[in-house]
UniProtKB/TrEMBL annotation:
This is RNA-binding protein KhpA. Its main location: cytoplasm. It comes from Luoshenia tenuis. InterPro entries: KH_dom-like_a/b, KH_sf_prok-type, KhpA. It comes from the Bacteria. NCBIfam families: PRK00468.1.
Amino acid sequence: MTELVRYIAQSLVDHPEQVDVREVENETSVVIELRVAPEDTGKIIGKQGRIAKAIRAVVKAATVKEKKRVLVEII
């Protein structure tokens, strides 16, 4: 999942080398933390959060078969 989020984020931002994706796993869930350059934050979130919602929807669809809940946090 981290590679999927990394690919999507690098496609959207002006500074793809500053994209950092980390995965933190708990007993019941997996949290994917996405960090980008400060000037690229708006491009990842999008107007009214539409791009962020789309990224979360793609990750959710890709992880349907897993037993754990997957969350995407933009930091």
